[in-house]
Amino acid sequence: MKPNDPSHPTRHVANLIEGWPHAAKAGKAAQMKWLHTALETAIRLEFATIPPYLTALWSIKDQKSPVASAIKAIVQEEMVHLGLACNMLVAIGGTPPIASKGFAPSYPGPLPGGVHSSLTVRLSGLTRDAVKSFLIIERPEAHLFNETNELTAAANLGAPDPADIGIGIFYDAILTAFQTLSPPLSTDRQISDWAPLEPVTTLLDVEAKINLIKHQGEGTAQDPDEGTDKADLAHFYRFLEIQVGRKIKQADDKRWGFTHKTVRWPDVWPVAVVPAGGHDARTAPPEVRILLADFDRAFALLLQLLNDAWTTGDDSLVNAAIGTMTSMGALGRRLMEIPIPGTDPVQTYAPSFRVRGHAPT
Binning pLDDT at 50, 70 and 90, where does residue 3 land? Predict the structure, then answer.
């Protein structure tokens, strides 16, 4: 088993959570090592959600549609979560390994760290199956105490695998480690000039940022809001609105439930599920080969820019990374308009989010 393998025992969240009491008994050095490893795993986890969300987003023909706007907002918040986890790691002297070989996840495959270990994440267009997998990723730890029976039924994804560990539980463990260690937090190399990010300088900052990550993903037991001034729904409930096709709102009786306002499923390109290793460029039309290669290079550049941003503390590199992601979107949408020869019904291509040179071409 390779050290960079996200299923490696030292990176598996179940082992990390179980290992914290042992690290706590072993002394401060072991505790700091645990926290560094946990934050690196959190960074891998936050990043792994972005490619499947982007692929679904880009498959929507009208990028200004309400559903496209909702998914785009979720992706932007996942980027913020990635940045917050990077800032927390940098604050304690670490460096995010974003450009390291093995950082970029492979699809289809599990989430890093064994989070929701029974789930296989795929790259595909926007489909009911894709949204169901997104709901599992963002699954709350508990139902709302004040939700309607209809909302409870819709949010029921079946009994979770007993081995599954949610993102929120993992972040709770990270917060416990910070509170136990109370480490000095340096602002050196933290990114703060990118509007959504602020440096973490105190334990209260760490707690606030971890709560933000959790609330934006799954809400709280009290309400499905993401916990910001915008009063937007958490990711789980925004995806649930898309899946069910109805808006969620709090009624006069203070219960949360579906309204009669509909959320129309958008027109999408018939994107095929990307196979392991990506589409075989050797059998693809010349235009597709060029687009796949260009996308792979842009993806590698994105990883390098993000890595260098938190290695040097250069805020401008994050803005450059966002620009690179925009260019990736243009390439990805062009691929999604091209039919795969021999498919019936017709299916179209999509990028694989692979680092060029680490997969067959």
Answer: very low
